[in-house]
Write a structure and sequence with these properties.
The complex is a heterodimer of chains A (425) and B (123).
Chain A: H1 6-37, H2 40-61, H3 67-95, H4 104-114, H5 119-130, H6 137-147, H7 153-159, H8 164-180, H9 193-212, E1 216-217, H10 223-239, H11 244-257, H12 283-299, H13 305-318, H14 327-340, H15 344-357, H16 360-373, H17 381-392, H18 396-409, E2 411-412, H19 413-423
Parallel strand pairs in A: 1-2
Helix pairs in contact in A: 1-2, 1-3, 1-4, 1-5, 2-3, 3-4, 6-8, 6-9, 7-8, 9-10, 9-11, 10-11, 11-12, 11-13, 12-13, 13-14, 14-15, 15-16, 15-17, 16-17, 17-18, 18-19
Chain B: E1 2-10, H1 18-33, E2 37-42, E3 50-55, E4 58-63, E5 71-79, H2 83-100, E6 105-113
Antiparallel strand pairs in B: 1-5, 1-6, 2-5, 3-4
The chains are: A mainly alpha (425), B alpha+beta (123).
Protein name (chain A): RNA polymerase sigma factor (Sigma-70 family)
Family (chain A): Belongs to the sigma-70 factor family. ECF subfamily.
Keywords (chain A): Sigma factor, Transcription, Transcription regulation
Chain lengths: 425, 123
């Protein structure tokens, strides 16, 4: 029987070890290779080749004592060989009297540079290249999960409820675009940093949100996607420890993730903030989140949208109940947020907070203004918020019809069930 | 998924070598920056602790030290994608000890903390 065959068992253990080390090290290896060959697609292929070499050699020779550095060194050798071959090819072309496309010296520099240690820097550059504005948002998300999260095409497809082929195409297209547009593998110049960084933060938060409240599908949440986004955020925070918005994003995600276990009932039904058993909030994540909020405040500088949202999440985390929540502070924070980062969704959240701090009538007034603007016509949370406020004002018939509207708009099965129940009570 | 790792060891006499402490710190920074190490702390010898036992309906408080061959030295909380990953990080932690403190022997006990993934909603 295969399972009891010792050779088979050894083989399987080694395969698992290779794949595990590979998963841990892949972003750093791909990043280092990209610096050498200047092409993420090629870098990923070379990195995959290295994985294959490890799978071939480790079962026979044993797992190296330092498997991570072994993979990195092997990968770098392959990349440098490739560059040398390219240089020789270019030299041959030159001998034949053709134009040099790549200056050999610069390639030699690349080889020399490759022998230096810049791992952290490379990973940071890889994040910026994967989230580059030349790519459409979905391309950025897929490429980030692929290159930095080490997710397979199938895992990405499952996370976003798309076909494997669609996910594969997004990744291939993104890599091709980066190569075709000759996007350099470098950190953005200081003047462009805030704008480029906000693209990176958006991508990570988008991944988190897709896990936190899936826009479609049967599950209300996909916690593994939240975990992946948190890991990416923490990775970024380790690389940019003095950027308050990076720390703010991590704080926001830690605090929101602390509620994951309390957001879902035993049958998978959503439990909204006000009804959650706060004893089930994750204390470790709250502690980490609050510490990150404090660190972001220490860094100071211009306050950005993620720091503000983290401050708001911190108000919820500190409160022992909905009633004990510092709603006036939340209102004040949302007012600043709406001012610096105007968005109808932020305004809707402001309406909710005003409804708590100053009464449902005031909240409804704001929600009605948003409804009249038409900006959120297809957004299920708008009628849901209006319904909630109407219910608290005793306007039950209107509340029911708004909940029904919310149910008709949402593409998430669990959310629809919740809205339907409320529309019928 | 989250794992609690408790390090149990029999330490050679004398303080841990400075190289070990530096290597542990470097590995800690690496794991933190990789986004997988959530929390970590050192544990004082069991002489500083106690045990509260309930047996046969009777509460019994026992002060340390306890007679176990190995003391609990530290704990760490990791958030990783698989058990294999936490095993790899714990192995790296043990190798750092092997390479920097001759005669040191111990185990890393890895326990999974229940998470949302363990309670998939019934469809």
């Amino acid at each position: 029987m295969a399972a009891t065959d010792p050779d088979h068992a050894v083989q399987r253990a080694v395969t698992t070890a290779v794949e595990t080390v590979w998963r841990i090290e892949a972003p750093r290896i791909i990043a280092a290779l990209t610096r050498i060959v200047r092409d993420v697609g090629l870098a990923e292929e070379l990195a995959q080749d290295t994985l294959v070499i490890a799978l071939e050699q480790w079962p026979a020779r044993g797992i190296p004592d330092d498997p991570g550095p072994w993979l990195m060194a092997t990968a770098k050798h392959r990349a440098i060989d490739l560059v040398r071959r390219r240089v020789r090819y270019q030299e041959k072309l030159a001998e034949m009297g053709r134009e040099l496309e790549i200056v050999p010296e610069s390639e030699q520099d690349a080889i020399d540079e490759a022998l230096d240690d810049h791992v952290g820097d490379d990973v940071l550059r890889l994040i910026f290249i994967a989230c580059h504005p030349v790519l459409p948002t979905e391309g950025r998300t897929a490429l980030t999960l692929r290159l930095l999260g080490g997710l397979s095409t199938e895992e990405i497809a499952r996370a976003f409820l798309i076909a494997d082929t669609t996910a594969g195409q997004r990744i291939v297209r993104a890599k091709r675009t980066l190569a075709a547009k000759r996007v350099p593998f470098e950190l953005p110049p200081p003047g462009e940093l805030p704008q480029r960084l906000s693209s990176v933060l958006e991508v990570i938060y988008l991944i988190f949100n897709e896990g936190y409240s899936a826009t479609a599908g049967d599950d209300w949440m996909r916690p593994s996607l939240c975990e992946e986004a948190l890991r990416l955020g923490r990775l970024l925070a380790g690389l940019m420890p003095t950027e308050s918005e990076v720390i703010g994003l991590v704080a926001l995600m830690e605090l929101q993730a602390s509620r994951l276990g309390a957001r879902e009932g035993p049958g998978g039904e959503p439990i909204l903030l006000g009804d959650q058993d706060r004893g089930r909030w994750d204390r470790l994540l709250i502690r980490r989140g609050l510490a990150a909020v404090a660190r972001a405040a220490e860094i100071g500088g211009v306050v950005g949208p993620f720091v503000l949202q983290a401050e708001i999440a911190a108000c919820h985390a500190r409160a022992r109940s909905t009633a004990e929540t510092d709603w006036p502070r939340i209102v004040a924070l949302y007012r600043v947020l709406v001012y610096i980062w105007p968005s109808p969704v932020a305004e809707l959240n402001l309406a909710v907070a005003v409804g708590m701090a100053e009464g449902p009538a005031k909240g409804l007034q704001l929600a009605d203004t948003i409804a009249a603007s038409g900006a959120l016509d297809n957004y299920p949370q708008l009628p849901a918020v209006r319904a909630d406020l109407l219910e608290r004002l005793g306007r039950d018939a209107e509340a029911r019809s708004e909940f029904a509207r919310a149910a008709a708009l949402t593409r998430n099965t669990r959310e629809r069930e919740l809205f339907l129940i409320r529309s019928e009570r | 998924m989250r794992y609690l790792v408790i390090l149990k060891a029999q330490q050679p006499d004398g303080p841990p070598p400075a190289e070990l402490m530096a290597a542990i710190e470097a590995l800690g920074v690496e794991a933190t920056n990789a986004g997988v190490l959530l929390d970590v702390g050192g544990l004082a010898p069991s002489a500083a602790g106690a045990r509260v036992e309930l047996s046969g309906g009777r509460l019994n408080v026992v002060d340390g030290p306890f007679a176990e061959a190995k003391e609990m030295i530290s704990y760490a909380v990791y958030q990783v994608r698989s058990k294999d990953e936490v095993v790899e990080w714990a192995s790296r932690f043990m190798k750092v000890h092997r390479d920097n403190w001759p005669g040191w022997e111990g185990d890393s006990v890895i326990s999974k903390v229940f998470g949302p993934e363990d309670f998939a909603p019934q469809q």
